[in-house]
Design brief:
The protein is mainly alpha-helical. Helix content is 46%, strand content 9%. The protein has 11 helices and 6 strands. It has helices spanning 2-25, 45-54, 63-68, 71-82, 90-111, 126-129, 142-154, 183-196, 215-218, 230-235, 240-247, and strands at residues 28-29, 131-135, 138-141, 201-204, 209-212, 252-255. Strand 4 (201-204) and strand 5 (209-212) form a beta hairpin. It starts with a helix and ends in an 11-residue tail after the last strand. Residues 13-25 have low confidence and may be disordered.
Length: 266
Amino acid sequence: MKTRTLLIVCLLFLSVLSVLFLYHFRVEADSRTQQPPSEAPFSHELFDQVLQEHVDKNGHVNYTKLKANPKKLEKYLDLLAVANPMELSYNAQLVFWVNAYNALVIKGVIDHYPTTSVRKVKWFNGFFSRLKFQVAGKTYTLNQIEHGIIRTEFADPRIHFILVCASTSCPPLENRAFSAEDIEERLETATFNFIQNPEQVRIDRAKRRVYLSKIFKWYDDDFKEGYEGVADFLADYLPPEDADFVLSEGVKFQHLDYDWTLNDQN
């Protein structure tokens, strides 16, 4: 009798584990109602409205309010699903994919909200690798958009300071959508602000150390695009005395812990 009871308990335990495993490791695809693409020029106006209405000056998102009324975001995602970015200019294509990435991160969060971190949505980085979205007539994960399109086709290290992964240690989410007309200026401003933020880049002359975001570790190769590496890149956005310090011999770089807490207004 005891053996039978133990067997039943074990089977129940395995059943619970299997349900948890399937939930966290299954691929989730966001389905869109198929509609013909609009003949009008592609517009990010709806996403701009979403950001203005739900993102504060610190880059925190009111996910509760947005989850309760996601109509504008959903309409924007419907447009993304059938758009043809190849018809756009170079800058407009970059803007298309950056806005798409940031919008889809928000979509991924509200689909699983409430949560305190994107890392709790899917185990082992599954938020970025197992949630799938329709963009430009194809299905992509966030990783495929970031690594397979944005980093590959545009090769600009500054994009790491406008792509936002819904976490505290990310660059702050801006409350306006990017446009082809302002992307260059905003790339520069976002990069400057990130590097000037002591929570992301901090110099300790006494210890001859530079403490910096793990973004510079994860994407180290990207900062060799037009530069001799991270130190050379940082120097472009630091005051002359700080630039000289980070480029001097014997300075050690130490990466800060990354805070994955959700960028939630609540």
